[in-house]
Specification:
Blueprint: H1 6-13, E1 19-23, H2 30-41, E2 44-47, H3 54-61, H4 68-88, E3 92-95, H5 101-108, E4 114-120, H6 123-132, H7 143-149, E5 159-163, H8 168-182
Parallel strand pairs: 1-3, 1-4, 2-3, 4-5
Helix pairs in contact: 2-8, 4-5
The protein binds adenosine-5'-diphosphate and 6-phosphogluconic acid (6PG).
Length: 183
């Protein structure tokens, strides 16, 4: 039997389209969880790292944290991608650290019905993961600035909180169950 198509998966799950930003500091598991969700639900996926201007990647690669000004054009591209997904009406998942409330507000601008999935992982586990991770521009030395910059989403923001310390398959199951329950 052939692989289930994306639309068949969506029907099978019975889920309405949602517009998710999987957020959190470097190494927390954004790409792992977001790609899993997009695959399981047949939703569109965008890796936020791929939208960074080359100068931002160069800066992070050489161990320098980004400033608000550096992040502004990147967040604008993230917002544009999200807006296109909402206009098209299909479910979508973006990875984006979205560390500050102001960044999340920029992503949600123009009334976009975005929901954030915040993956929370301890600093010790994050450091170990970033030391192990290969083939990625982000050095482990930037973890302290990532953690210092993070403004954990408040209860007044549209956020779903998940632990990044469970196995990714468990996190995915929890999220899908949450979406099924919430409708
Ligand atoms: N829940 C998890 N438990 C253990 N390791 C994980 C988990 N999620 C991700 N990882 C691993 O940690 C590293 C960082 O994950 P990644 O998805 O690239 O995070 P981010 O996109 O937030 O930087 C990768 O090597 C990944 O395989
Ligand atoms: O705003 C930032 O400082 C960056 O966007 C950063 O938060 C992001 O984490 C990097 O792009 C590294 O990529 P990973 O998060 O995939 O490690």
């Amino acid at each position: 039997m052939g692989a289930m198509t994306a639309s068949a998966a969506r029907v099978k799950m019975g889920l309405e389209p949602r517009f998710l930003v999987v957020m959190g500091v470097s190494g927390t598991g954004k790409t792992t969880i977001a790609t899993g969700l997009a695959t399981r639900l047949g939703w569109h996926f965008q890796e936020g790292d791929a939208l960074h201007p080359p100068a931002n990647v160069e800066k992070m690669s050489t161990g320098r944290p980004l400033t608000d000004a550096d992040r502004a054009p990147w967040l604008a591209l993230c917002h544009d991608w999200l807006r296109a997904q909402v206009e098209a009406g299909h479910g979508a998942v973006l990875t984006c650290s979205a560390l500050k409330r102001a960044y999340r507000e920029q992503l949600r601008a123009n009334g976009l019905p975005i929901e954030f999935v915040h993956i929370d992982t301890s600093a010790t586990e994050l450091a170990a993961r970033l030391e192990r991770r290969e083939g990625h521009f982000m050095p482990a030395s930037l973890l302290p600035s990532q953690l210092a910059t993070l403004e954990v989403p408040g209860d007044d923001e549209p956020v779903i909180r998940v632990s990044g310390e469970k196995h990714p398959d468990v996190v995915l199951e929890d999220l899908i169950r949450h979406f099924q329950t919430e409708g």
